[in-house]
Specification:
246 residues; Rossmann fold; 7-stranded parallel sheet; 8 helices; globular
């Protein structure tokens, strides 16, 4: 069995790659450009007993999505979990962003979920699961998030439609939305204000703290497990209640 993580070389994607996989299991990590981070991810996962393949591919293209899945197919075993954690942020007002950037960010942040799932379909088996990383930006305005939030809204719809299409085969598709984390994507959105935003999110959270990796990894492990065999087409928010506040 294998776990495939698009965007798994750092941040939440890497935490999920480690948290969802098991020692001795094959983990295929897709990444866009940061070779150094990918190598560090390999070291961490191999130290934890995983068998790691890293693949540099632009999943904002159909060819890149197929390339990542082909690396998993070469292992000649079923894909147990496919995780979409890849993201590209282009800041600025939507009215001013170039058509090229809009098209590519939509592809990276959303359409690639469909491309990856299509490519992986022959390697899924009953019990396999797809997990898409999303956020509260699907349902509320976040300044500077115009190339991500609307794209994730589209992917939110894809989750539901794919869930229904794949349910007869015992394959489940769900979304996971962790609360504010100090990631490259967050810093791309907020820049020099990132530390301020993180502090404000902590102060606002009714649970009195920010979410930590074990919080959302535990949720992810449940969602891709047989215990959640009848949960599909859903998105779980791991926010400690912060998503319920205005």
């Amino acid at each position: 069995m294998s776990v495939v993580v698009a965007g798994g070389s750092k941040g939440i994607g890497l935490e999920l790659a480690h948290g969802v996989s098991e020692p001795g299991e094959n983990v295929v990590i897709g990444y866009g450009s940061d070779d150094a981070a990918a190598e560090l991810a390999r070291v961490r996962l191999e130290a934890a007993g995983r068998i790691v393949t890293i693949v540099r591919a632009d999943t904002g293209t159909q060819e890149g999505a197929k390339e990542l899945i082909a690396a998993a197919a070469a292992l000649a075993e079923p894909i147990r979990v496919l995780i979409h954690s890849t993201v590209r942020v282009v800041t600025g007002p939507l009215m001013e962003i170039s058509d090229e950037d809009l098209a590519h960010t939509l592809a990276v942040n959303a359409t690639s979920l469909l491309w990856l799932t299509r490519a992986a379909r022959p390697y899924f088996e009953r019990g396999s699961a797809v997990l898409y990383l999303t956020s509260r930006g699907v349902r509320t305005y976040v300044a500077g998030y115009g190339t991500v939030g609307p794209a994730k809204s589209y992917a939110d719809g894809l989750i539901r439609y794919l869930a229904v299409e794949l349910a007869p085969f015992g394959i489940r598709v769900n979304g996971l939305a962790p609360s504010t984390q100090d990631t490259d994507a967050l810093r791309d959105v907020f820049g020099d204000r990132t530390d301020e935003v993180i502090a404000a999110a902590k102060a606002k959270n009714p649970s009195g703290r920010l979410v930590v990796p074990e919080d959302y990894c535990a949720t992810a492990r449940f969602l891709v497990s047989s215990d959640a065999s009848m949960i599909t087409g859903q998105t779980l928010f791991v926010y400690g209640g912060a998503d319920l506040l205005g």
